[in-house]
Amino acid sequence: MARRPLPRILSNGGAQLARSRELARTAADSATDVLHPLITITRGLRRLAAAGRRRWSDTPKDKRGQLLFPVASVILVVALAPYGPLLAVIILMAAAAWYGRDRTPPAPEGPDEIQTQRLRSLYEALVPFFSIAEDPAPLYAHGGEWDKAFPAYEFDRGDRITHLVIQYPAYFPDGEPEARARVEHLLAAKSGRGREYRFTWHEEGNQLTVAVLAPLPTDIAAQRFVTAPGETVLGLTDASEVQRTLPLERGEERCEMPPVVWRTGIRSTEPHLLAVGQPGSGTSTLLRSVALQALQYGDVVVVDGGGTGDFACLTGRDGVLAVECALAGALASLEWAATETERRLIAVNRARQAGHPPPDDTQRPLWILLDRPSTLAHVAAADGHKDPQSLLQAPLRHGRAANVTVVVAEQFDSLDALSDSVLQHTRARVVLGPATGEQLTAVLGAPPSTTPVAQVPPGRGYARLGAGPVLRLQVPATPDPYDDATSEAHRQAVMDLLPPRTTPADAEPDRLPPPAEPEPVPAEAAVAKSP
């Protein structure tokens, strides 16, 4: 059947709308220019009337009669004098035009003395990087013209650079990371330490753009995020880096903030996560935030290798299968998780072979959260037990097909204690707290696009999901509600998200349901292929 062409309003409606908006904008600008004298006079009359009302209000009541007498005399003289009303109108319009003029002081052209000195010193510092002896007309030379090298710049109220465009010569090796890093380090030091900078290199135009990033908000408390099943909010990031925003509660206000969303489940490309940081950087806070979101749709097994009790608030909650701190309990929980993963694989594989949908007991997500597994590894080695991380091979390798997600948090000084399976299968990475560029690159697999700073609040860091870009990250405030140092607002926010207790905290519950015994199946059907 022949296709009818689209109407013109649908085929080229975008161009017509753009032209209409341009015509409307031009007409508005022209009308403003034509009516500018009338606007000025009207504004002046309003100011004169306001001044008259203020004078009348400030005059005491017993002296207002004395004020009315000279005013009435002036009106009478104007009315009786030849051409008096006309002259009065002309004088009034002139006074209104004078008082209605725009009194905003014009913006100063160019930088002031302090800003000029900062730009000149920055230009001199860049001379060794952007000049060679063979250049007949160098753009950078000692005592040269800095305004040709810096076509655009902005300063804050403290006369510190907030935005700078740098023009550099074409022979500078901007494709070499080492050369870039030297220039970026110099610019960060000369422009002001303690701030985060984003450096954007435009190789085609030989330009470098330096932008100062505003700090990410730290007052976003834990809350119920508007996400779909299988989506977990790791934290907040810059609006220019993601194309999505979430409605959040910031104190008593509602706002839209850009999140870092990690997708898990059967169709996830990064089904497992590794979080690394220094002590006190917020890795346990990230695990609590992930656990509260996971409990909305699935079950959670928590292994607290550090034994700090940071996850005691989850004990006995609905959907929390176990919260283990001791080695024996951790081994039993992880062994059950490995057996449960295998059971799910077999059940899903049988259902597919029979042409049936997967069973319902395999669709509920299972989350395994491990905080500092290296500590348990040392204890296991001392007692002659196997490393608990060896029980993660099945959940890590086949977790995506079995709807099992593993989240591991570790510190920098114990990274070498992580097993190869953990490092290989945790392609979603988070680094929290202060870290050097080398540490960030080693964990994330790529350097960040911003300069790391030495002092950061808890929960601040970087995130990278698979082969995606490195994003700045601020984890929502999810402290331990049983900690005395926790504020009442943040404590109540966490308590509101916790599921109801199904088992008293002081009781001895059955930690895990007994694993189902898998029936014998052919060897080729033992492991289901991931979709």
Automatic annotation (TrEMBL):
Region annotation (Disordered) ranges:
497-531
Q: Which UniProt keywords apply?
A: ATP-binding, Membrane, Nucleotide-binding, Transmembrane, Transmembrane helix
- Bias category Pro residues: which stretches? 512-521
Q: Where do Low complexity bias regions lie?
A: 522-531
Transmembrane stretches in the record are: 67-99
Q: Which residues form the FtsK domain?
A: 257-441
Q: List the GO molecular function terms.
A: ATP binding; DNA binding
Superkingdom: Bacteria
Database matches in Gene3D superfamilies:
P-loop containing nucleotide triphosphate hydrolases
Looking up InterPro entries in the UniProt record yields: FtsK_dom, P-loop_NTPase
Among SUPFAM superfamilies, the record links this protein to: P-loop containing nucleoside triphosphate hydrolases
Which PROSITE patterns does the record associate with it? FTSK
Residues the entry annotates as binding ATP: G277, Q278, P279, G280, S281, G282, T283, S284
Q: What is this protein called?
A: FtsK domain-containing protein
What's the source species for this entry? Streptomyces chromofuscus
Query: Source organism lineage?
Result: Bacteria, Bacillati, Actinomycetota, Actinomycetes, Kitasatosporales
